[in-house]
Here is the input.
Amino acid sequence: MLRTPLDDNQADILRAERVLLEDLRAAVARLDARPEDERRLAQALRQLEELFLLVVVGEFNAGKSAFINALLGQRLLPEGVTPTTSRINIIRYGSTVTETAHEEDVVVVSLPVDWLAEINIVDTPGTNAVIQRHQEITEDFVPRSDLVLFVTSADRPFSESERAFLMRVRDWGKKVVLVINKIDIFDTEADIEKVCQFVGDNGQALLGVRPQIFPVSARLALKAKAVSGVERSALWQASRFEPLEAFILGTLDERERVRLKLENPLGVAARVQEKYLGITQERLALLSEDFKTLDTIETQLAVYEADMQRDFAYQLSHVDNTLHEMSNRGMEFIDQTVRLTRIFDLMNSSKIRAEFEEQVMADTVAQIERQVSDLIDWVVERDHREWQAIMEYLTRRAEQHQDRLIGQVGTQFEYNRRQLLTSVGQAAQKAVASYDRVGEARKLADSVQKAVAQTAVAEVGALGLGAILIALLHTTVADVTGLLAAGTVAALGLYILPARRRRARTELREQIEQLRGQLHEALSTAFEDELGKSVQRVREAVAPYTRFVRGERDKLTALEGSLISSGRTVSALRQRIQDS
Here is the structure.
């Protein structure tokens, strides 16, 4: 990193910074980080192994190249009133003067200047130039710097565009030194002091601390180094270049350079950490809306189930009423039939059975069959309506976030999320559009028929619901009519007939109650099964969205913790560097 070996504390800080930068790279990679942010973290890692980097920035025509030429003692870089530096020039030590293209927009200039063996200087294109690319590559290179020398011109110090550029430099946590060039345009010391005060006040307001300020004339300094004697002394004093040169070559000694070198990656790390912690927290906040969506759907399903179960009891009461009416008719039939006046009819079991079917059973089978059919239609209709409600809700949710992006990064997250919302809505819409009401009703009817048959311990075969009900009712008829016909045995004992009537009434109630129980169990089984399937269909349709939301929350919560920890590490390392 630097020529002087690091002490144990510095070496430990260096190791901690490498771990920090690697952890950050891994974290932001999981957040679909912008390539430039990943690249800057990688550059920060590489910079730890390179020489101290002094980056010179400023607007075009502020005299950056002239300043560097003065520092080097010879006119090695082109100067002019138009943008002359179109690339990044990294100036480093070399036994001969060479110029080598290093990467896109970067040229390495080697010069035989001894102090360049310890410090690399970077000359950047002017900001605010007509050529926008100049500003882009300047701003891209600033994060690599260990120290930023910001050159402003005395004739237009601290312009609004310079203020905006310095804000971006500040955001990277860089140490900034301000150089006011071209002070030779002033005639009095008061004018120089006035511009220094102006730049210092504005710099403090912007950077939070009062920056070091060096008023110089790079033009006079270069002239002074080109002559000797009294003329050199006068020019050198007028240039005021000596304090700045002493700072760079003297005050900025090995210890200070190590400190700044170790601080450099922390500025990059802090900027990236804050940026992606904000993105992570924005995403978590957005996911909270998605959990509300899922909770709303679950609440809606719970309400749907509760409403259906309540309303099913009402629907089932129609069957109960039909059986209750049949029971009442049966009671009346028994009272009217089991009498001495009808003793001869009681001896004719076929006649009693026929009368029972006509007067008691009547149209019970048809009524129950119609009521079951109505119940099936009701279940299918409510199921269909629930799907429509969820489809409309999810469609509205997807539309609300159609154009929403999370900051300037992480669009893949929002894309995935929006796509899932849309696909779930489309799945619901497709289910509604393809809903075969007749087919669904038929399937449910078959399910009811099977449940009734199984509950009645009857063979399903090709029998319809009506046939099964008739079989059940005939069983009841046979039991009761057999009991009525048995009253003939007691014909000679008149006191036994009332007992037979009471027993027949009891038997009929029990038979009808058993029948009611069988129908309740069969219909309830079929209904609960269908209701469960309906709710499960919704949950299965929403499942990809649910998995995404839960998975993202778990991932983002872990990343949030990691990024917060990285922020604490940055603060702790900065403190250690300040204390060392």
